Amino acid sequence: MLRLDTLARRIPRAVLQYGLAILSVAVALGITNSLEQYTTLRTPLFYMAVIVSAWFGGTGPGLLAVVLSTASVDYSFALHRQLPEVRADTRPFVLLFSISALVACWISIQRRHAEEALKVVRDQLQARVEERTAKLSRTNEQMQAEIHERKQAEEKLRERANLLDLTHDTVMVRDMNDVIIFWNRGAEQQYGWTSEEAIGRNSHDISKTVFPTPLEEITAELTRTGRWEGELVHTRRDGSQAVVASRWALQMDEHGNPIAVLETNNDITGRKRAEEALHKAQAELTHVNRVATLGEITASIAHEVNQPLAAVVTNADACLRWLAHQPPNLSEAQQALGRIIKAADRAGNVIGRIRALVSKSPPQKTRLGVNEAILDVITLLRTEVHEHRVLLKTQLSNDLPLVLADRVQLQQVILNLIMNALEAMNGIPDGSRRLLIVSKRHDSNGVLILVKDSGKGLDADNLDHLFDAFYTTKPEGMGMGLAICRSIIEAHGGRLWASANSPVGAVFQFTLPTVAEKMA
Fold this sequence. Notes:
This protein is an alpha+beta fold and 520 residues long. The chain is 59% helix and 17% strand.
């Protein structure tokens, strides 16, 4: 078998095709002659020879088979014409056979071409089917892998969601249109809506969110940094309000596009109420301390008021005398009236300062100059300084920027520090009692105020407790003055501290940020 295959590969294909045509016609002729005594049919086998030659060999071998078959048929008829009993003309029959053989050859060739074309189409179709099947198989494998990965992701998300349901904080996820797509149990308990009721609704509409700044600004910061946090006011289902510490985190897809926002809210309503109560208590305590301090300088206040009132009486008597002259001295009387007005204004200013310090109005931060507040307090304490026999000096810088502060609270701090300095110098020889008040710039970003005395100084062991509430070195003190002063300064964004003065005494100093720094 191997030898035949090798021989077939060595023989040219054309030789085989034409040899098949000759062989098939020879076989047809031989069979026809051998069966001549049994039948008169001489053409069927030649047709078969033509068809076989054309089918396996193509056009050339098919035509060769037609020619050989026609010659064989004509030869066969020619032998019969030599017999005495056969005299008919057989040429029309031979011609008809030749034509029929050509038609059979053409049909066989076309059939073969059709079969070959069909085979090619079938092969192509099968190749496409196999390719499509392979693609579908790969696609199916990919889909199976994606489905498996999605199931794993869903399982992880489900586990995370179960974990998020365990927290008491409210956790929600909303898309970029603020539509809720996840709502945990903490949110259900906090706001009163179930997960089924909340999902699909706008988060800001359902909770009637009150923002500290416009939502557009918050969204811009969230887009820029990916995070935002602040305090929001939400309304629960029952109509009650809750203050929450809210934290937002922007979620991205694999291409870096924002797809959702994770929002966690912690209810701080109770804490805010406690802070408000604490602030109210601190304000009450600050007011009490301010009134108590003013009570300590009642004599000085009375003297400050009595001086302009006495000047009013004196100038009024002088005005009456000038008017009683004949003729009345109107010029002198007019000058006396002017002095009365100035004295009355001075008394009114003193009373106004006292009323401002005693008032119980809420803090109102405004733009003000530190030097003006210092001078108002010095004016109020001028008599007190004189009675303590203290030499008061000031070094107030003229180029100080404005600060954003509450005037009354700032004056209360300055008042307390000056009063403490005066009391610290009790028992010091008269000529050594010196008090210096300084105002200047601090690190180019704020204002620094210093109150320096030449008193007994500070105990280094107690320096750390100096600003603690209820700590005092005075037998009759409450221990609240310096603690309140520190809380006031820190509420204004500043800092208050104490240190030793050189060579003796103490220095109390505090800083305040400028208006520009506050705005920044």
